[in-house]
Amino acid sequence: MAAIVGKNTMVTFGLHNRRITGMGTWRLTGMSTDLIEVSEFCVDWKDWLCGLKDGGEVSFAGYLNRSCTSQFALMDINMNCQCVTSLRFHLSCVSTAAYFYPMSITPFTNSCIRITSWEVTSEKAGLVELSFTGKVCGLMDYHL
Fold it and tell me: Reduced to 3 states, what is the DSSP secondary structure of residue 7?
């Protein structure tokens, strides 16, 4: 398998998969499962059952761009505690190629991302930086 170069990845938002300009890093922690210990007395080994699943977290960061409406839309989504279903974390600069996205689990339930925080950082010798953190509610799937 060929390695993937990070500079060729991107984050997109919205129905038309528009690139969020200025973003330079992204991270997806992935899913985890609670384990419930169900061992009995008089056994040598613990036994476990799978409990609830946790969709993980996403974070992405880069430079603040006042002309990028997606950056400010995500700030508003955070303020209004809305769920985002149209964030994509791409492994290529091609918007239709491989990416991670909140998946529709059933016809009645959609996974989503809740933007839990955003932060703007500035220093006199650099560019103004912007970062977002989100909680995955449900499943992040991988589109080939």
Answer: helix
The neighbour count for residue 101, using CB atoms within 10 Å, is: 20
- The secondary structure of residue 8, as a DSSP letter, is G
What structural domains does the chain harbor? Answer: 6-33+48-143 (2.30.110.20)
Q: Are 82 and 96 in contact (CB under 8 A)?
A: no
Element (H, E) at 76: helix 69-79
Mean per-residue pLDDT pooled into runs of 10, the chain (144 residues): 82 88 92 96 96 95 94 96 94 85 76 96 95 95 88
Tokens 């791409």 -> residue: 90
Cβ burial of 46 (10 Å; 0-12, 13-18, 19+) is: exposed
